[in-house]
């Protein structure tokens, strides 16, 4: 199957671009988030391509005053992986690895966006994520992350607001992860569900700090890294012996405060203290959404819109387990005064995590 992508020198194998191996769970995704400096408005977007499901889908939401305004779209892919338009949502690569646009035009629900993301520095490639449950490969993917600034405009219900110098981050990931309808086949060796994921893209005046961890049930990080990225174009500095700790909000698994500590290659400790704001649930971008989850089938073309009062949601329902929180942060580096910054702490915590005191699926902080 030839497509427009075959006219570009981007092939990785002796097959047309439309094909991507043989795993039905292969995907290729854009993800974006941004927020006002006073943290009163947050927006997020995602667009995923699923070659072997013949689908492309996208989501966009704006949250303010505790209400998420969500736009979802899905259509048949028909082999054209470079056509990143899905219903009212469009992603444009203006300058690869530096400048991208997110556009939304949904007049039926009076939701519009014209947004441009500009990177503060080059993206960072994270360590490859490979995760197995028993003998079953659940994840095998590569991800790059980048911090940047947003400009443009969003309009809701006829009320526009200008976005100028808002902070945010994006990622690009591709590979294999669970998609669409769940596999009905049992896998007895997989055990109880367990997942501990944190991601913190943090902005400071002269740099960004990216931290992520996937912990096992004992709290050991099977994929963990922290990197300082200078805003002046200097090379990233990967920290060593990275560790973290979290304090949870009573009655939930949502993090209220967190700390990250690592060692510079030449010695000397770098630490970050994080204070989290209210939860921003990622269902607005399709994550864990019961209907508009990533890779779900909706026919040749479909769109939907939702308004959700997030204050009415149960924080301990699995539907809300994947979330972000805009946070303030304090960075300490050797020989420098403490530096204040802002960012996001993403969280998804399922099952046992011994250092947190979670010894079963239903455990929450006291």
Give an account of the 3D structure.
- The protein has no helices and 22 strands.
- The relative contact order is 0.16.
- Helices cover 0% and strands 56% of the residues.
- The radius of gyration is 20 Å and the shape is globular.
- By secondary structure, it is mainly beta.
- It has one domain (26-176, 193-356): AttH-like fold (Beta Barrel), CATH 2.40.370.10.
CATH class: Mainly Beta
**What composes the largest sheet?**
13 strands, antiparallel
Topology as H/E string?
Answer: EEEEEEEEEEEEEEEEEEEEEE
Distance between the termini: 56 Å
Q: How many whole angstroms does the radius of gyration measure? A: 20 Å
- The domain count comes to 1
CATH fold-level name: AttH-like fold
Which class best fits the helix and strand makeup? Answer: mainly beta
CATH architecture: Beta Barrel
Instruction: Kindly state the percentage of residues in helix.
Output: under 10%
Unreliable stretches = none
Task: Tell me the CATH superfamily.
Answer: AttH-like domain
The average pLDDT value, as a whole number, equals 95
User: What overall form do the CA principal axes indicate?
Assistant: globular
Strand content: over 45%
Count of alpha and pi helical runs: 0
Number of strands: 22
């Amino acid at each position: 199957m030839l497509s427009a992508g075959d006219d570009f020198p981007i092939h990785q194998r002796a097959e047309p671009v439309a094909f991507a191996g043989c795993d039905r769970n292969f995907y290729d995704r854009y993800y974006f988030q941004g927020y006002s400096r006073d943290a009163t408005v947050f927006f997020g977007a995602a667009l995923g391509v699923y070659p072997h499901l013949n689908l492309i889908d996208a989501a966009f939401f704006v949250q303010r005053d505790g209400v998420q305004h969500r736009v979802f779209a899905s259509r048949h892919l028909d082999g054209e992986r470079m056509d990143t338009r899905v219903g009212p949502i469009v992603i444009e690569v203006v300058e690869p690895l530096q400048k991208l646009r997110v556009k939304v035009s949904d007049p039926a629900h009076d939701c519009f966006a014209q947004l441009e993301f500009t990177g503060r520095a080059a993206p960072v490639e994270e360590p490859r994520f490979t995760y197995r449950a028993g003998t079953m490969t659940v994840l095998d993917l590569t991800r790059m992350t980048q911090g940047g600034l947003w400009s443009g405009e969003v309009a809701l219900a006829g009320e526009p607001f200008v976005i100028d110098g808002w902070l945010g981050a994006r990622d690009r990931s591709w590979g294999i992860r669970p998609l669409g309808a769940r596999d009905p086949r049992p896998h007895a060796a997989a055990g109880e569900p367990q997942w501990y994921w944190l991601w913190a893209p943090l902005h400071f005046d002269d740099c960004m700090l990216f931290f992520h961890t996937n912990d096992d049930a004992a709290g050991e990080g099977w994929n963990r890294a922290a990197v300082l990225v200078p805003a002046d174009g200097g090379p990233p500095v990967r920290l060593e012996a990275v560790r973290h700790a979290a304090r949870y909000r009573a009655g939930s698994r949502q993090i209220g405060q967190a700390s990250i500590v690592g060692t510079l290659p030449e010695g000397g400790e770098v630490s970050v203290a994080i204070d989290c704001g209210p939860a921003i649930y990622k269902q607005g971008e399709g994550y864990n959404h019961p209907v508009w989850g990533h890779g779900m089938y909706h026919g040749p073309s479909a769109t939907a819109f939702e308004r959700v009062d997030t204050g009415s949601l149960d924080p301990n329902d699995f539907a809300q387990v994947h979330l972000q929180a805009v946070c303030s942060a304090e960075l300490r580096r050797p020989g420098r005064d403490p530096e204040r910054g802002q960012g996001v702490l993403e969280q998804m915590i399922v099952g046992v995590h011994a250092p947190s005191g979670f010894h079963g699926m239903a455990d929450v902080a006291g």
